[in-house]
Q: What sequence folds into this?
DNA sequence: CTGACGTCGCATTTGG
DNA sequence: CCACATGCGA
DNA sequence: GTCAG
């Protein structure tokens, strides 16, 4: 079955869903089946049955098994912890809080979960867990309850509540649907993705998310990303060789697989100190949009989620290849960054998050502020409490490390997630 | 006890 | 019509 | 929900 062949058909078919819902049943039912079979069986999940999905698709040569969670951005790997069951409980509590519209509680649970994943030995009590960062009173008590009874009260829902929660989780897997919209759609009575496709008030973003729900959840092999990036670079430099184009994110950190393609662009003509705001906007608009248009024209970009003067979000695809013929759709972001902010942006969007956090704390301790917009020194005025900012000119990522007096780290050395584990090992020695 | 927990571009809704 | 608020993703 | 101020 050729995906390209389907392409022209899929878009209209979604629009014409009212008339021909049957057309949609096949692509969606796979998702749903997967869903009910693997994801939303709390009893199985709690007993520690590995929630793994092996991608059977021959498209992906990786025999990558991935723990499938409702999280759009899977946060933590918990597979080989001696406290895996506890972590799964915390993960479910995190999801519950997100569905309750409590993002900070969600993060609090995730933080506790990360601590516990990194903990090398089996926890015997909540008290023991409470020594870890992010684990306080409440979580300690829940861990005790779990260790004693094998479950946590808060997670026990009535059947109907559980069904509702499952549905909210399902809808949130669609890009463009978050906790609020997911709940509102459930309240409106939608029971499935097929139902949802009939909703006339879906935004453009949500339609794209629904259309590609399966493909967006697939990991992208590194070699495919390299080819995608190559296309963007060539197309961009064909317009103007003065563009600088670089992929960030996990790809730049050397990952074998990624979730999406995150590209930043800059051009010497786009600086923050441009005369009139209108001129500036004109330049910005054309600088990013001409790249987008070129990529649309050659069929590389298949759908757009948002198009602004400095940020583009969309969907891309390799040209059909005669050896494997695969052309999975992937999320792609393009950012246009002011020329003098380029390296700060590169650093920030290369991450990872933890590495950013460490560098920003270091900057703060030294009287600087580091962000994607640059490295700024806070200087106190001679008189009074006023401060003013001195922007540090950055010509490379190395410059930032140098100014902050940190040893330079190559992108692939900036994977800080999971490094906590090493800390513990070192501590034991 | 109380506030922070990252912040911002873009699409879309809301309320004048 | 516009200005602001909200939801979302990153 | 947790932590720091």
A:
């Amino acid at each position: 079955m050729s995906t390209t062949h389907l392409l022209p058909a899929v878009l209209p078919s979604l629009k014409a869903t009212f008339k021909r819902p049957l057309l949609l049943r096949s692509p969606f039912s796979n998702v749903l089946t997967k869903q009910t079979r693997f994801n939303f069986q709390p009893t199985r999940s709690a007993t520690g049955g590995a929630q793994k999905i092996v991608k059977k698709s021959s498209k992906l040569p990786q025999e990558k098994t991935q723990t499938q969670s409702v999280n759009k951005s899977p946060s933590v790997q918990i597979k080989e912890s001696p406290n895996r069951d506890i972590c799964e409980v915390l993960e479910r509590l995190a999801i519950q809080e997100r569905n309750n519209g409590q993002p900070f509680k969600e993060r609090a649970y995730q933080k506790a979960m990360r601590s516990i994943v990194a903990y090398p030995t089996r926890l015997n009590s909540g008290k023991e867990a409470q020594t870890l960062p992010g684990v306080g009173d409440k979580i300690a008590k829940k861990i005790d309850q779990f260790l004693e009874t094998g479950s946590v009260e808060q997670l026990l829902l009535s059947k109907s509540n559980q069904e509702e929660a499952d549905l909210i989780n399902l809808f949130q897997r669609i890009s463009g649907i978050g906790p609020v919209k997911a709940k509102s759609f459930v309240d409106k009575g939608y029971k499935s993705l097929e139902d949802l496709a009939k909703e006339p008030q879906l935004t453009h973003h949500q339609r794209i998310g629904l259309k590609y729900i399966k493909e967006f959840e697939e990991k992208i092999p590194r070699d495919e990303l390299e080819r995608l990036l190559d296309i963007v670079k060539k197309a961009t430099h064909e317009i103007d060789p003065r563009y600088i184009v670089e992929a960030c994110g996990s790809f730049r950190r050397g990952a074998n697989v990624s979730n999406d393609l995150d590209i930043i662009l800059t051009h010497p003509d786009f600086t923050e100190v441009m005369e009139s705001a209108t001129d500036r906007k004109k330049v910005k608009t054309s600088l990013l949009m001409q790249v987008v248009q070129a990529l649309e024209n050659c069929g590389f970009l298949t759908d757009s989620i948002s198009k602004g003067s400095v940020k583009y979000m969309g969907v891309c695809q390799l040209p059909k290849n005669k050896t494997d013929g695969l052309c999975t759709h992937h999320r792609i972001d393009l950012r246009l960054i002011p020329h003098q902010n380029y390296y700060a942006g590169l650093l920030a969007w290369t991450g990872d998050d933890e590495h950013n956090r460490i560098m920003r704390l270091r900057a703060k301790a030294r009287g600087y502020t580091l962000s994607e917009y640059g490295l700024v020194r806070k200087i106190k005025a001679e008189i009074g409490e006023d401060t003013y900012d001195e922007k540090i000119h950055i010509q490379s990522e190395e410059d930032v490390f140098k100014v902050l007096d940190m040893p330079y780290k190559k992108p692939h050395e900036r994977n800080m997630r999971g490094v906590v584990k090493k800390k513990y090992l070192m501590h034991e020695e």
